[in-house]
Amino acid sequence: MEKIKTVIIGMGRMGKTRYEAMKRHGGFEITAICDTAAHNMDGYKEKKYERWQECIDETEPKAVIVCTYNAAIPEIVCYALEKGIAVFSEKPPGRNLEDALKMKEAYERAEDPVLKFGFNHRYHNSVMEARALIDSKILGEVICARGVYGKAGSPNFETEWRNDTSISGGGIMLDQGIHMLDLMYYFLGEFTEIQSSVDQLVWKDMPTEDSAFSILRTGDGKVASLHSSAIQWRHKFSLDLICTKGFISLNGLLTSTKSYGEERISYYRKDLEQKTGGLGKPMEHTMCFNEDQSWDYEMEEFYEAVRGKKAVVQGKIEDAVNLMKMLDNIYSV
């Protein structure tokens, strides 16, 4: 297997998660890691840096994994692209649309660039099964969606870096809700009309929101509702996809904490003639999953893109810009 010389910038929780996924893959030669907090790199044998530019310049990697605070993402991504280095960056793609457009400009200036953003939820088994069902057309066309992505805050939620706008750019909607927005965009397309209520309902002294409700409509009339919340108190992931000939329901999400419950997908075909059940209660088809291989699927796609074997499919810069455009609209309404 061809080894790709790689460095990781940012060794917090996500940096460590990506590190383990690359080790499992076997095709990445991690030659250096970098973090401004030296203790985050304790226990690793790779060469350690505290300044990202020094890390890139001295090691001359073929690929860079960016797992930093949101504010630092654009500068690192643009710098690496300008040096001809392939880049995998965590979401969100910066703090706002302006940040995403800077990276798009750098991408367009680069020669044969590879840039992928970590919209990991597209690689969950339930989501991939939903995509296959929709593509098969057995349930017709998706026409609307409802999504809830909620979690409890934390004892120190108000002071977390995610609620410092200078670093993060937004609150729960940007930090976690972007995953649900991305899935709705993935299944329905870009939303051009947006109405929102972005609020501080419990943590009223924070500069960022703890709750965001949005009604979204595509140019061809598909509709979605989204609730992103840090005040759900019990972690919850739920996405309903209503189609012309049936209905898909995704509930639960496999994560490292297991706090979102069992990951499963159920689907139902429209049965107004009651051939498979009572009216309003058609036959149910359910699949449950007990393994999360999403990190591995994601790294495999990046690996093949760096090798020039396949183009980036999920997490493209065009999708990143569209998402940040929609998020800007959610925050501005």
List strands and helices in order, with pairings:
Elements: E1 4-9, H1 13-25, E2 28-34, E3 47-49, H2 52-59, E4 63-66, H3 73-82, E5 86-90, H4 97-109, E6 115-118, H5 125-136, E7 142-152, H6 165-168, H7 172-188, E8 191-199, E9 211-218, E10 223-229, E11 231-243, E12 246-251, E13 263-269, E14 285-289, H8 294-306, H9 317-332
Helix pairs in contact: 1-8, 3-4, 4-9
Task: Please tell me about this protein's structure.
By secondary structure, the protein is of the alpha/beta class. The protein has 2 domains: 4-119 and 296-314, 3-Layer(aba) Sandwich (Rossmann fold), CATH 3.40.50; 125-253 and 255-290, 2-Layer Sandwich (Dihydrodipicolinate Reductase, domain 2). The chain is 32% helix and 29% strand. The chain contains 9 helices and 14 strands. It has helices at 13-25, 52-59, 73-82, 97-109, 125-136, 165-168, 172-188, 294-306, 317-332, and strands spanning 4-9, 28-34, 47-49, 63-66, 86-90, 115-118, 142-152, 191-199, 211-218, 223-229, 231-243, 246-251, 263-269, 285-289. A hairpin with a 4-residue loop joins β9 and β10 (223-229). The longest helix is centred in the middle third of the chain and has 17 residues, at 172-188. It is globular. The mean pLDDT is 96.
